[in-house]
Amino acid sequence: MGINGKYSIGILLTFILLAAVMLYIFPVIRMFTGIKNITANSFFLSRLAIWSVLLIVFLYSYFIEKGSFLLKDERKYSLGFYIKAVICLYLFCAIGGAFINASLQFLLQEKISNKLLQLTSIFKDNYFLIILTCLTAGIVEEFLMRGYIQPRIEKIYSSPLLGVVVSALLFGILHSTYGTIGQVVVPFFIGAIFAMFYKKYSNIKILIICHFMFDFISLMIMNFMDLKHLSVF
């Protein structure tokens, strides 16, 4: 099998494993532990399952592809560039995401998802779980979506644009388990912005930091916000 074939299997493997974890991890946890509802403990176990996906894909790239996990060499930048890049990315994604979310609420009258309401109660004052969740999203999702999938799509089809679009689309689809259109469209928008940044600047660390910061600020706002105001946020 050629290297492009191995890349294709790796991309499919990554998406299937992530989708399986997002869709079925809580029923599996319930089967082995007896925990019926989503609790802090079951959510902690679900984050460990997501980390295991990164480990499996890393081992696949090492033993099957026999190459570097990150096809793009990491470029080095100054501390000032890091700070400006993270702030600009965060503001662009936050403002753009808020505008998209507000537009969808106006057009579709979409209500907040039940899953998000459940998670709000789980995260309440549980700062360890908040930080773990943000680290998991920032590190695992960026390594898999931007670091692994995007450059391999680009290599297979010789199309940087397709790498950006496909990685962003998969990123959006994986958030569909929250049950709302906004939870697909906004992640797709953010995924596209991150993918374009990665294509231009080849630095996964900046994206990890920004992703962590975006989720951390969002969860901290949710932590201190009254549930009745959450749909506005």
Description:
By secondary structure, the protein is mainly α. The chain has one domain. Helices cover 79% and strands 0% of the residues. The chain is built from eight helices and no strands. The model is unreliable at 228-233 (pLDDT under 50).
Q: Outline the low-pLDDT stretches.
A: 228-233
Number of strands: 0
N- to C-terminal separation? 49 Å
Q: Helix content range of the residues, please? A: over 70%
What oligomeric arrangement do these chains adopt? single chain
| Residues in β-strands, percent | under 5%
What structural category do the secondary elements indicate?
A: mainly alpha
The average pLDDT is 92
* Rg from Cα: 18 Å
Main sheet attributes: strand count, strand direction, barrel closure: none
Domain count? 1
- Tally the helices: what do you get? 8
Order of H and E elements: HHHHHHHH
What's the shape?
Answer: globular
